[in-house]
Amino acid sequence: MRVAVLGAGVVGVTLAYELARDGHEVTVVERHAEPAGETSFANAGLVAPGHAYTWSSPKAPRILWRSLFEDGQALRFKPSLDPRLWSWSLKFLRNCTAERARTNTKRKVRLCMYSQGELNRIAAETGVDYHGLKGGLLYLYRTQETFERGAANTAILSEEGLELRAIDRDEAARIDPALAPVKDKFAGAVYCPSDESGDACVFTRNLARHCAERLGVVFRFDTAVEGFATEGDRVTGVRTDRGVIAADQYVNCLGVFAPGMAKGMGVSLPVYPIKGYSVTLPIDGRNNPPAIGGVDEDNLTAYARFGDRMRITATAEFAGYDTSHSPSDFDHMLGVARDIFPDGANYEQPSYWACLRPMTPEGTPIFGRGRYRNMTFNVGHGHMGWTMAAGCARVVADLLAGRKPAIDLTGMMLPG
Length: 416
Ligand SMILES: Cc1cc2nc3c(=O)[nH]c(=O)nc-3n(C[C@H](O)[C@H](O)[C@H](O)COP(=O)(O)OP(=O)(O)OC[C@H]3O[C@@H](n4cnc5c(N)ncnc54)[C@H](O)[C@@H]3O)c2cc1C
Fold this sequence. Notes:
The protein is an alpha/beta fold.
């Protein structure tokens, strides 16, 4: 079967791999000159079932409300006239009950755990390098109160079979010796031994190369999708700025740009862009970089090490499709990083970046078809698309093959 995958982020490229592995003839259409040019470019890199909590929780409305009046660095919610923002926010608020948060988190952690297994399978099958670091992730808490709350929250993930341990600061420093000089700043940590990290961009680009060179996947770069040609309930071609590309099946993996392309096809996707910032620093001979990744939970700042680089990420901002940034946007997260790893990297050489998370109100992605029976969606991976991409790729490949996916997709399928 000929399949056109639209978008060469981590989601589109892993799907291309799975489809080619199943024996399909795959073409990937991407408007940038290379893969992972948007959200998959410089994310935090955490493969983190241990952080699979949904953002829509009973605490979220109060946090959003406060952010209207405070100039916080972690969450920046500024109302605009965008009707999509309002309809998305209403759906988000509806998911903030304890019951919905519990259901969504359980679905999400199951998908994350399944995906991590699929990611490791793909890495083993292909040998693609991505600066992967196993050995767990540390979720650090600065106060006894937040530590106790964080430790109590883990129950919902542990119920699904994920090992998470509340540990004291000495054990955290044994697990990551880079924390030893600063361990007294923390009350304790939650350690997820099976979590890991790796560079999603390096993975995506290396996997794309493998797909092209070994599996015959065709990449049409510098090619922007503009719309679709249809006949009855079928798509007959993707209209691009370089002509029409015809296939038997089409999969929309366009990240935050998916809703615009879906709208023209009568599908309303509740995927909204939520901006995040990251800064990457060379380790450059500094002698105490982190051994494994983690999150400073009180500052909502994540860190990871990729070979000879360290990356820090933070902030959830409602800014529409604006990806601009200025050095002051990074002051807080760099302050946090210097506080934990004063000799972890060369702070004089920051590479700044900002991009948009394709968030759904539930925090779980969206699969399935809309009005056209050969157009499938694989979108809305939010703040965990690197963690979830490989499992979602397998799910979509199974759906296209008419096979039952290995995990329950309740709540993630489009009606139709
Ligand atoms: C600051 C930050 C930190 C994050 N940290 C983590 C983390 O630690 N762990 C984790 O699991 N996830 C993390 N994420 C989330 C993760 O990065 C995303 O969920 C993931 O990258 C989404 O991948 P995607 O392929 O769906 O989207 P993208 O990577 O954006 O890919 C979509 C592609 O479609 C292309 N495209 C769009 N429109 C068109 C068009 N009209 N024609 C042709 N091509 C088009 C784009 O150019 C792009 O290449 C983070 C995100 C951010 C912003």
